[in-house]
Amino acid sequence: MWDLPSSLLVTRTVAFNQLLADVAPDIEAVVRRYADDPMDADDLRQEIAIAIWRAMPRFEGRASARTYVLRIAHNRASTFCLQRARNRALFSAISTGDHPVSPSITAEHEGARLVERLHDAMARLPDGQREVLALAVAGNLPAEIARRTGRNAGAVRVALHRARTAVRTWLGLEAEDR
Fold first, then answer.
1. pLDDT level of residue 7 (50, 70, 90 thresholds)
2. What CATH number corresponds to the domain at position 122?
3. Are residues 115 and 81 in the same domain?
4. Could you tell me the CA-to-CA distances from 122 to 92, 134, 137, 153 in Å, in that order?
5. Which DSSP helix (H) or strand (E) runs through 130?
6. CA angle (84 as vertex; 78, 86 as ends), nearest 5
7. Which residues contact 4 (CB under 8 A, 6 or more apart)?
8. Rg of the Cα trace of the chain?
9. What pLDDT, in 10s, does the model give residues 61-119?
10. Same domain, yes or no, for 115 and 163?
């Protein structure tokens, strides 16, 4: 699983744990700024810890370790908030469609139903539009999608617009519901 010798892995783990202990109050302050919900806060703490672990080998000492870690924490928190906002907007848009979900249904069932409706709508899209929409939902920007698909950014934006419009129509969302 790890490509590091066990002695280096132990050393890296000890250094990682010490670094987290040293900056824990600062990381906690970042988490409190970006996440109100306790479950979101836990998720964000874990994502920050993973990002720090992955970035440790690239630390060159140009700044203090605290500064380096806090930059990672802020970047990860910003990305976390953008992804959370996209997901909430997507699910709130879907739930306002022509198939309202009963509040008495469990959250798991509600989530599964929303995902099913979205998959059905996306399956109706032409392949090119489905591909760019899936990449956009995964958090990729049009320029990144263009690089990955070999299209130009303008064509990606047009395909995204057409795909979103079609999905909204098929989900029964009117212009005022957006």
1. low
2. 1.10.10.10
3. no
4. 17, 9, 11, 21
5. helix 127-137
6. 105
7. 12
8. 21
9. 888 989 999 999 999 998 888 888 777 777 665 655 544 444 444 566 666 777 788 77
10. yes
Residue 115's closest CA among 80, 87, 77, 156? 87
| Helices 38-55, 6-34: inter-axial angle, 10-degree rounding | 140
Tokens for 95, please give them.
């739930």
Q: Report the run of H or E that residue 1 belongs to, with start and end.
A: none
Last residue of a domain, one of 19, 54, 88: 88
The boundaries of the domain holding residue 129 are: 101-177
Tell me which DSSP letter residue 61 carries.
S
Q: Which two tokens stand for residue 36?
A: 């109100």
End position of a domain, from candidates 56, 88, 120: 88
Q: What residues contact 79, with CB distance under 8 A and at least 6 apart?
A: 139
